[in-house]
Write a structure and sequence with these properties.
Elements lengths: L1 E6 L6 H11 L3 E5 H11 L2 H11 L6 H13 L6 E5 L5 H10 L3 E8 L2 H9 L1 E3 L6 E3 L26 H15 L1 H8 L3 E5 L3 H12 L1
Helix pairs in contact: 1-9, 2-3, 4-5, 6-7
The protein binds BIS(adenosine)-5'-pentaphosphate (AP5).
Length: 210
């Protein structure tokens, strides 16, 4: 097993690209830290209860909380699999924790989208709470409005997708997560993909870059 890290601002398209290429390539596994946390909240676990307060405000949850979840997934993944790690690491401390887990990082791919586009991307996002498929009301609409193409569940707007919280998430991204670009560049692992070429274009360039 090896790891490809997805870097990029909230709403840059990390989940969309990772979900698409993993659905089309059996040896790719998409692991989203946000989905793991939302799953824990939905299940009402102690970790979920703790995480919710941070997530609703657009802050990062404590490193140890998310690291435990990622460690479990890494430990249970075997064989010729490339894990597309979406949302972890989120700061330098988490990058060091990942190194200590011992799983080899093949590359870190930055999906590059200007901040000016982020609010529009997130305002139009609709998410399936059941199978996690993602949509956009203009860029990637479901066949039937408000209904998931994959599993038929009713699509929802994420609680942290309101404009005020998105502003805070962007501040957190620039302060906490952006330093990872330099961190992985120094290791020769950083690749950059233009996130403005449409979902198919970004997916194609991501596969080449990773
Ligand atoms: P998380 O769920 O990871 O959110 P995020 O990183 O803010 O990223 P998003 O899921 O918002 O965006 P995305 O880049 O996946 O974009 P998407 O593909 O949906 O984290 C949520 C919270 O959990 C955090 O705020 C934090 O509290 C906590 N958390 C998570 N991980 C943590 C960690 N490691 N440590 C601490 N706390 C953590 O695309 C967005 C929209 O654009 C969609 O509508 C999509 O259809 C559309 N779109 C996508 N690509 C394109 C394209 N190429 N062209 C046009 N439209 C596109």
């Amino acid at each position: 097993m090896n790891i490809v890290i997805l870097l990029g601002a909230p709403g840059s398209g990390k989940g969309t690209v990772a979900g698409k290429v993993a659905a089309e390539n059996a040896n790719l596994k998409h692991v989203s830290s946000g989905d793991l946390l939302r799953g824990a909240i939905a299940a009402g676990t102690a970790a979920g209860v703790e995480a919710k307060g941070y997530m609703d405000k657009g802050n990062l949850v404590p490193d140890a909380l998310i690291a435990t979840m990622i460690k479990d997934v890494v430990a249970s993944t075997e064989g010729e699999v490339t894990m597309l790690l979406d949302g972890f690491p989120r700061n330098l401390a988490q990058a060091k924790i990942l190194e200590e887990m011992g799983a080899p990082v093949k590359s870190a791919v930055l999906i590059d989208v200007p901040d000016s586009i982020i609010q529009e991307r997130i305002a139009g996002r609709r998410t399936c709470p059941k199978c996690k498929a993602g949509y956009h009301i203009k860029n990637l609409p479901p066949k039937t409005e408000g209904v998931c193409d994959v599993c038929g569940a009713e699509l929802v707007i994420r609680k942290d997708d309101n404009p005020e919280t998105v502003k805070d998430r962007l501040v957190v991204y620039h302060r906490e997560t952006e330093p990872l670009i330099e961190f992985y560049e120094a290791k020769g692992l950083l690749r950059k993909v233009d996130g403005m070429t449409g979902v198919d274009g970004v997916a194609r360039d991501f596969l080449t870059a990773m």
